[in-house]
Write a structure and sequence with these properties.
Layout (H helix, E strand, L loop, with lengths): L2 H13 L4 H8 L5 E2 L4 E2 L3 H5 L5 E2 L5 H15 L2 E4 L3 H7 L5 E3 L4 E4 L6 E8 L5 H14 L1 E6 L8 H4 L2 H6 L2 E6 L5 H8 L4 E5 L11 H8 L6 E3 L5 H12 L3
Parallel strand pairs: 3-4, 7-8, 7-9, 9-10, 10-11
Antiparallel strand pairs: 1-2, 4-6, 5-6
Length: 245
């Protein structure tokens, strides 16, 4: 449920088109719906501007499906991260779209896109995290473009696409290994940069810790750093910055 829906219900009550009891029935799941194993926050979008999103990892398929259907019933939309094609099929919701590269299922994506978010990766192996960011930001209503495999080992690939950096309002950079790409991008762009370390790399990458430390210690000012592999968080932050008035 979003602000527009709440306003519509209250307006209908004010006009006398629906009773107070009917309006209350529509709003009864505020602040949340207790499902015993989950308390679904249907009005998070009103408070935060970002609806509650289902993190599928660690949940049973049945739990994910039950939460998704509860959300779908109330708002007609939901986003599931770390999801599978099997979950999408089990949902039996025609509008559900599975984004295989991101491992995300979406229903009710905002169609009217705003601004411009650019998502970059250092390598092809960083794409799953980048795609999670891109799908999330697009679902929320940001216009998103991607530019993949432009890491520092072949810097000419990035420099050949400088126009894309200048056109974006916000830039998300996903990188593993030594995590250098956000600093390079920050050195040639005046846009807000969201760096996402990925768990891609050999032994001393330490599951993304090396990239994380490199990004946290960047000498370029104005870089925000997300947790390792947190493409979803990057997508949310990028959307919020992108849609600031």
């Amino acid at each position: 449920m979003d602000v527009k829906t709440v306003k519509k219900i209250l307006s209908e009550i004010q006009k006398g088109n629906i009773s107070v009891e009917d309006g209350l029935r529509e709003l009864k799941h505020l602040p949340y719906e207790d499902m015993s194993f989950a308390r679904v926050d249907h009005h998070r979008h009103i408070r935060q501007g970002i609806p509650e999103v289902i993190f599928a990892a660690g949940k049973t398929d049945e739990q994910v499906i039950s939460i998704a259907k509860a959300m779908y019933k109330r708002s007609g939309r939901f986003l599931i991260t770390r999801a599978t094609q099997e979950i999408r099929k089990a949902l039996r919701i025609k509008e559900a779209v599975f984004h295989p590269a991101a491992g995300v299922i979406s229903v009710g994506e905002v169609r009217k896109k705003k601004g411009h978010v650019l998502v970059l990766t250092a390598g092809t192996s960083d794409m799953p995290v980048a795609e999670e960011a891109a799908v999330t930001a697009s679902f929320l209503g940001s216009r998103v473009n991607t530019l993949y495999d432009v890491g520092v080992a072949g810097l000419h690939r990035l420099m050949g696409n400088k126009a894309s950096l200048y056109e974006a309002r916000v830039i998300v950079v996903a990188a593993g290994m030594e995590g250098a790409l956000p600093s390079v991008v920050g050195g040639i762009s005046d846009k807000p940069i969201i760096a996402v370390p990925t768990s891609v790399g050999y032994g001393t990458s330490l599951g993304g810790l090396t990239a994380l430390f490199a990004m946290l210690n960047s000498c370029v000012p104005g870089i925000a750093v997300m947790n390792i592999d947190n493409g979803f968080g990057a997508g949310c932050l990028a959307h919020k910055i992108n849609t600031l008035h």
